[in-house]
Amino acid sequence: MKIKEVDLAIIGAGPAGMAAAMSAENAGMENILLLERAEYLGGLLHQCIHNGFGLHYFKEDLTGPEYAERVIKQLSGMEARICMNTMVTHLNPDRSLIAINSEWGEFKVLPKSVILAMGCREKSRFSVGIPGSRPAGVFTAGLAQKLVNVDGYMPGKEFVILGSGDIGLIMARRLHLEGAKIKAVVELMPHVGGLIRNEVQCLNDFGIPLLLKHTVSEIYGNDRVEGVEIAQVDSDGRVMKGTERDVPCDCLLLSVGLIPENELSIEAGIELDERIGGPIVDEYLQTNIDGIFAAGNVLQVWDLVDNVSMDGDKTGANAARFVGGGLKIKSSEIKVITGENIRTVTPQKIVGGEEVEFAVRVRTPLQNAELKVGQVRKKYRVLSPTQVIKISLKPSEIESCRETGRIEVSCFEREKGRAHD
Amino acid sequence: MMLYSNVKGAGITVERDYRMNERVIETEVAVIGGGITGAAIARELSKYKVDACLLEKKGGYGFGITKVCQGLLHGGIAHLTSRAVKYHGGMPFKDYLLQPFNLKEKLQNIGREEYFSLAHVLDEEIMQPGRLMLAENKEDMEMVDLIKEISDDLNIRGITLLDRKGIEKLEPLVHPKFIGGLFDANESVVLPMSWAMAFAENAEQNGVHIYKETEVKSIDEKNGHYVINTNNGSFKAEYVINAAGLYADKIAEMVGTADFEVSGWKAQLLVMENRVNIQHVLCIVPHPQKRRLAIPTTHNSLIVGHTFDPMTHKEDMSTTREGLAQLMSWPQEFVPSISNKHVISSFAGFLTFNTKKPEDHLLESPKRGFINAVVSAPGLGPAPAIAREIVRMLADQGFELATRSDYNPYRYKEPRFIDLPEEEKNAKIQTEPRYGHMVCRCEKVSEQEIRAAVRAGAGTLDDIKFRTLAGFGRCQGGFCTSRVIGIMAEVLNVSPLEITKKGGGSYLLTSETKGFRRSEAKEVWG
To answer: What residues in B contact A178, CB-CB < 8 Å?
Structure first.
């Protein structure tokens, strides 16, 4: 078996992995190996042909392929070795990993540091428990996006889309433009799951009906989908009896959530945050295994690719510091507590004495909100669970929490505003 | 078919008009049905000098009710627990349990034993995790004690009485409500479809002619033999074996002997990732009409089941809202730390029985040359024994059984590439680089394995799934579906628009996108 000794191995060459490779190299690392299972760089960006990418990272409005191309161009001038069509099959607690491709066969990598950048996957109809028959014509929205935008095929003619996450909204518009009929976008929650701009630009602008507080309660059809049953749900998300109605269609698309892909992390013994599905990390985005970092959607599902690239930047630099012996860890650890109205926070622990950037997701939409991290307060006009808020604390603001060993993140409305629906 | 009216190749469906195909194939024995029973019978027949055909309606083996069974082979105390579930009063409970084995239970025990020797011969997997029956209260413990007592009386080996500590030793994470239980080391698990394929492939190797996508439409009797009319030609046979499973009553009707119906129960099941690493089959102490199991499988998942509802329609294998809601609450009843986030799939199957002898298999010949091989659930375990019984019945009817000297019981199954030792993997990649290209990330299936499966006859996405496991895992084909469609289209040299999920009209794609002409794209991009 071939053995590759490297300073840094990056698993996944989507936006997170590519940014990590460049940032590590810019920080002086030399021997970098980037492992990518697909036949192209950029992860899923190439199938996201709509615009809206890069507003923060590049200060420009780009399409997915443009964003990818820009990063790929930068990367092509670097030394980092890239292995395409390469699947990492095992990751061990000692950071060594096994991978496989056509050129090297099955080979072993012995890295001094590892960055996890495997991204995320879509939930299927089964993980959200939609009953009914098992015909052809039930697709996740991302798979449909690949079929339409990359392969050039339509997965159906008349669609119902369950879930108003960004991919669902984008696909509603895309399929409409391809001449398909979108019977409805159905959302379990009382609010849209994706970005507000996508609700406006993808649904409203094209007159595509949106059904909030509804779900698909059954799938019909033997060979191909013949229709679905749509029903209203109560505040617990349960189907309300008597509200069911049949909607004929030949395709059901699902945009019902994304799950970080952490099978390798689990194998290596990396602890996960069950609420997020990604590794528990410190402010360096380092997992519980020294020298293994996590960046992008494998850590938490981000709403914007810009954040994914920024994660990559961070981990690349930190991996370089780790290998160079420059990551300063204090003896006492501060635990980050998820307080009132907060769904998730990263990092989950603070181990150093430097500035810390928190990424916070609230539980419900809030108006005139105040976010509190330790003793620091910040005001927001609107906070939505669909958007991650970033907030940085200076070393001095962290220090005050060292004695108790905990720092709480919470959020509340300063005054009762109009209910968001 | 309006749905696909403008699709290229829309006229091509798997179903062909049988009148168009007037060939007549002569054979001595025709087995109808390529489920676990029919496949095992075909293999049993292939041991003898006999010209036999296996006719299967679908594109693969075990695509009917075999596919949707739980994969348990039972044994040990299983017959006691299944009797307990069926107890309706009458005689005292203990006497009821102590009754001697009926034919069904005997065949179950013989068949089950056979799987262990066949695993090696047919290159198939079998797992013997044992079954842990969990007791919640004193009443449950009384049942456990009773079953233990009876199993001792019957001299069943491998049965251990356990207290809380004992069950924790086997399964550290089980729910604290369980105070004790019984461990039965005999319980074993297989992947049923895979075994149906093993039986059928070995039968084919030994000369049985296999006809897939061949649906029996009618049967005529002429001059002492049967003419079976199908969508794929006619078959003139001296003997007909009816192993049509769910539709065995319809086949029997075709020769005018329908004195039974195939009825049953609908059972819904959940498949999850086995993240909490459950090692044994878990079940609750049996109560009438209440079965609850968590089964670790041969490919690292966990099957949780099953609900119990009357079968309303034979084609209705849909899951229901109520069923899924029930199922979703069960995993945590066994192990509180199981998360429903790790549900991979859910499905429904049928536990069938014949209305003539609901408690037994219907293995009989209502008229000369026609033999019913109609099983009552469970049919997986007894299949090899039923096969032997059916062949014996053939002999009773005067069919001469001469053993073949060239019979080869061994079947070679291509091992999954990812399971090979490193040197073998690398040797294979050297000769065929496509082994190094992984297409299915969850189950780690290479491009070459998918190509090989298509060449070996896998014509649908579901065929690929069950042969190679691509699309079987946690993402349920979210990533690999489009790649598999592409590979299938390339190998079969058809448009991706013609690829189906499971044959018939189950097309996956409906048209090309607007304004995109593949031919033009080729001109521009070369």
So the answer is: 513-514
In chain B, which residues have their Cβ closer than 8 Å to the Cβ of A219? 318
SS3 call for A291:
coil
CB distance B346–A250 less than 8 Å?
A: no
Q: Cβ separation of B343 and A129 shorter than 8 Å?
A: yes
**Residue B174's pLDDT is what?**
96
Partners of A228 on chain B (C-beta within 8 Å) are none
Walk across the sheet containing A245-248 and list its strands.
A214-220, A227-232, A245-248
What is the distance between the alpha carbons of residues B191 and B303, in angstroms, rounded to a whole number?
12
Question: What's at A315, amino acid-wise?
Answer: T
Q: Sort out which chain B residues have CB atoms less than 8 A from A121's CB and list them.
A: 474-475, 478-479
Nearest alpha carbon to residue A111 among A264, A8, A2: A8
Place of tokens 């078959």: B235
Sign of the CA dihedral running A31, A36, A40, A43: negative
Give B313 to chain A, closest Cα distance, Å: 13
pLDDT tens figures, A234-252: 999 899 999 999 999 999 9
Query: Per residue in B396-440, pLDDT tens?
Result: 998 889 999 999 999 998 899 999 999 999 999 999 999 999 999
A124-256 CATH choice from 3.10.50.40, 3.30.70.3090, 3.50.50.60, 3.40.50.150: 3.50.50.60
Written in H, E and C, the secondary structure of B63-122 is CCCCCCCCCECCCCCHHHHHHHHHCCCCCCHHHHHHCCCCHHHHHHHHHHHHHHHHHHHH
Do A2-121+259-323 and A124-256 agree at the fold level? yes
Report CA B211 to chain centroid distance, whole Å. Answer: 19
Which region, left, alpha or beta, applies to residue B377 given φ > 0 means left and ψ of -120 to 50 means alpha? Answer: beta
Tally Cβ neighbours within 10 Å of residue B231. Answer: 18
Closest CA to B392 of B34, B117, B103: B103
d(CA A259, CA B522): 37
* Averaged pLDDT, B150-159: 93
Bridge partner list, A227 = A220, A248
φ, ψ (nearest 5 deg) of residue B18: -70, -25
Distance CA B275, CA A267 (A): 11
User: What residues form DSSP beta bridges with A32?
Assistant: A8
Q: Which residue in A366, A161, A371, A182 sits closest to A254, CA to CA?
A: A161
* The token pair that represents B502 in the structure block: 């499971």
Cβ atoms within 10 Å, residue B123: 16
B84 pLDDT band, cuts 50/70/90, is: confident
From CA A91, how far away is CA A85, in angstroms rounded?
A: 18
- Structure tokens given for A353: 């004495």
Three-state DSSP state, A210: strand
Domains of chain B listed by start with CATH number: 21-66+192-261+357-396 (3.50.50.60), 127-187+263-354 (3.30.9.10), 417-525 (1.10.10.1100)
ipTM, two decimals: 0.93
Per domain, the residue ranges of chain A are 2-121+259-323, 124-256, 334-413
Tens digits of residue pLDDT in B194-208:
999 999 999 999 999
* Segment B360-365 mean pLDDT: 94
Interface test with B, best of A49, A84, A100 (most B CBs within 10 A): A100
Topology (CATH level 3) of domain A334-413: Immunoglobulin-like (2.60.40)
Residue A25 parent element (H or E)? helix A15-26
CATH topology of domain A2-121+259-323: FAD/NAD(P)-binding domain (3.50.50)
Over residues B338-363, mean pLDDT: 92
Whose CA is closest to A318, among A43, A72, A114, A120? A114
